[in-house]
Amino acid sequence: MEYMKTLNPSATDMEMRSLMPIGGGSHAAMETFLKFLSSWLDTNRDFELVQAYICLFLKISGEEIADTPSLVALLQELFSKQQQSWTRIEGHFNRTMCLINYLKSAVL
């Protein structure tokens, strides 16, 4: 992830395109990238960055993924983890909003 963070947008695009079989990669490379994104969601860091990578990866290789059952299965697992992460973040937002509302109405 540290390497990915150093890349500019065009280099990131190029790296993701190189994962596809047509770009010199393979389905195994695509599977590894999806597993990487899934494991990064488990760290509870860089949520927005992972979302951007998922979006770009799907935009570039969506058709290839749809035609490969193993990639579809990994994408479904990634989607499940993404939902769990969003639920966790949403809980943090809700607690923060409750605290802000309480502090706004509290007489100090």
UniProtKB/TrEMBL annotation:
GO cellular component, one term: small-subunit processome
InterPro entries recorded: WDR36/Utp21_C
GO annotation terms (biological process): rRNA processing
Superkingdom of origin: Eukaryota
Annotated ranges, domain WDR36/Utp21 C-terminal: 1-104
Protein name: WD repeat-containing protein 36
